[in-house]
Amino acid sequence: MIGKIIKSQKDLYFVKNKDEIYMSKARGNFRIRGIKPLVGDNVKLELTEDNRAYITQILDRENEIKRPNIANIDQMLVFVTINDPPLNLFNLDKYLAMCEHENIEVVIIMSKIDLTTDDKIDQIVDIYEPLSYRIVSIDNYNNFPIDEIIPILKGKTSAVSGASGVGKSTFLNNLVEKNIEIGEISQKSKRGKNTTRHTEIFAIDEDSFIFDTPGFDSFDFDFIDDENLLKYTFREMKNANCKFKNCNHINEPNCQVKEDLEKGQISQTRYDNYKMLFNQLKERRENKW
Fold first, then answer.
1. Please, are residues 81 and 167 in contact by the beta-carbon 8 Å criterion?
2. How far apart are CA 213 and CA 157, in angstroms?
3. In the prediction, which pLDDT does 219 show?
4. How far apart are CA 89 and CA 92, in angstroms?
5. Measured in Å, how far apart are the chain's first and last C-alpha atoms?
């Protein structure tokens, strides 16, 4: 029997097969081999005569994210807000770079648009829409665009990500019949209280799933060890026609990216965030030993 792990609690795994959910354990050989089943894994399930369920095999993973530790994500819904909490474009660009590296589709969800202005929304759209990122603006409490959201999720396993307090739990409540605890915004930090306590997958329909993952403001950029590979995770730099093939678009001469930047064809904010990440990766590599 093939199923998908939709929730885990310590050594128990809840595996969904069609309309049935089986509370399962992993066979001991996984622990011996240092393998841990993850939420999102597609697995082979064995039912015993005493009606117990055991995971006997983890099928090949399409991808894996370490924090939160989930597998087989087709699409990432990256939530941002302009205000409450304030927009952090550096963290957004880190999310986008991670998704590019893992070959995960991205939809940028601009939440709480009732708390900002059209001009500020347009500024973000002007940065990311030319890079072919899909952007959806939502107000979770008024006129939630369910007819626009459902086709985006159809036939995919999507993950919800972004800082705490950006409206992820309210968004999920609008999609599934599940009372997900919603926290208030901390007035001291203007960040949401982390209300999601474990990772879980909800079924939108028979072939559409969505992760509920713990909110976090940032994550370790540990999926790239070499700063020279970072340029391949920024769409505007992937196919740059520079003089040198190994151009990192920072100090090299005859760099197309820097020329495009001067012409206003590349966002200054994106470029600054790229350089900041590049320097962080370089420093980490040099100090590793």
1. yes
2. 13
3. 64
4. 5
5. 47
